[in-house]
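Reposting from the mailing list since nobody answered there.

I have sequence plus structure tokens for a pair of proteins and want to know whether others read the tokens the same way I do. The first protein:
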Amino acid sequence: MARLKIAADQQHFERDGKPFFWIGDTLWSAFTNPTFEEWAEYLEYRKAQGFNVIQINTLPQWDRILPDLGIYPYPIREDGSMDYTAEPNMEYVARAQKLLEMAVEEGFTPALVVVWANIVPNNWLSNLFPGMVWPLEAVERHVHRVVEWFDRYDPIYFVSGDTDLRDPECVKYYQRTIEILKEEAPEALRTMHLCGGYLDLTPELADGLDFYIFQSGHDVNAIHKLPEYPAEIKRRFPGKPVLNAEPCYEQMPKMVEFGKPPIGFFSAEEVFETARLSILSGADAGITYGANGLWNWRRDPDLAEGPAVVIWGETAVWRDAMRFPGADRLQELKTIK
């Protein structure tokens, strides 16, 4: 399968010279939680619905649902952080490669987050969990390894995951990540996944990206701010495709403020309307969907642990979340591009 490219109009994607409308699904926890049998079931179901991109974290997602399969890229310390000084666990690598091979065979493009915010210093997430931060040289090693392990599957690279860029030290980590990707995977598309409502890319970082994504997110008032996001991105950084890669997830709690009780859950209708308004507002290169309980992959209805449960509440098990009705309507959005 050929790599995804930027179309001649510099506003959309194409593959093999044909238009490609990004219909993504959020599976941050794919490398740690599903079995191969579950993954095959998932791929078959989403393929039938018309999805064509899967967004995955290359490291264990900090707020995934536990228990998972217990297979990690590096040893896990008692405090939950990864021992980045250790040699990588090749069982994890082989498993991730098999998952990507299965996905690509079914026609999906992997969108891989290279460096999630929790391991980078001085952003909102790592400030909450400072013990998770890696030194720059450890992050550089991981970026090199991601390309070595996964570039054969023609992925898109998300340089960052859920970060802000309010500190120069944080920016330095991502600038270095871009430099390594440009050198070692020059044909792969690069973008940055920023935290909800955050648009303040530096010009230097923006120059290293092929397209822009934003996160309207899970704030109860996010939909009212939607028209501002694509217009502001195009004003600051014109000439590249834009899409909303994290609108509200179906059955995700409606957040008033991070860490405070939510006020209900996002319905299928609200998810679809957010996606529709994203495209009508100018983020028309595609859209990403998310289902709470699937992105973090809850398997056992009677047992669920970890930050995901505390922050995002009780969820459906992954198989039920996969069948939430909002996912069925995304194909309709192709007609309003």
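The second protein, same order (residues first, tokens after):
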Amino acid sequence: MRDGRASERMPEGDAMSAALSASIVTHAPDLALLEQTLDSLRRALHVAHARGMLVRADVSVIDNGPGEGWRGPLRALLERTFAGTPWAAAEVVTGHGNVGYGRGHNLALLRSGADYHLVLNPDVMMQDDAVCEAIAFMQSHRDVDLLAPLVIGPDGKVQYLCKRYPALFDLALRGFAPQPVKSLFRSRLERYEMKCEADSGKPFDATLASGCCMFLRRAAAAASGGFRDDFFMYFEDFDLSLRMGEHGRLLCVPQVKIVHYGGNAADKGGTHIRMFLRSAVTFYRRHGWKLW
């Protein structure tokens, strides 16, 4: 395990295979859930490697604390998970403190030499062929710089996380309105969440992707500067989507599937609501206000 030192440059992928780096940012994680996430990632990497799509993988768990007590458990977890995979390196990046979600991912993304980079939440389970399908799609669609998967909740229902540019009304409605109010504006929400496109089963262009799982063309993401430092949590994924979308396509590809256990800010209490609102203001100041 390494403590935040730059990794060696990976070999460049050819027409059939690629190198992949991946990062997971943690802060007081549920270790049992994180173990499931890492195990699902290991299986997905193994399938891609076995099929000749993946030549090398480099997995970084970014330890944002709190404190220094998570280093040992995280190292032990990675060692158990990736033992016996000589083509996959795993590390804990630690010692930097709680720098936020986006800056945490940048610690791996901006130093990677891989062809692709996977941004992943610690509460996501990947389908076994997810990495293989994502690499194959991006290898054959060179104009796509950001690939978003189809996201399923633990209840088996689709979470519509690829979206159009949000009006303030959309954010308030989706995040904080009671269900009867949401029902009154169902068609509006479905348009914002691109429900029709997602339910088609076909890849579709989107404006915004969720940071719970992003397959990035690494060079394009690095050229954009990665995640911006002024988003500590929330909207850093929307901001990156818009900046990368200026130069390449952002596609949701339903053939790439994950299960996401996360919830929205309103379900996590007052601190998260305040962070959400603060980041929303930063986002709109940068990209333009839209009230309705």
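Reply #1 (J.P.):
I read it the same way you do. The radius of gyration is 18 Å.
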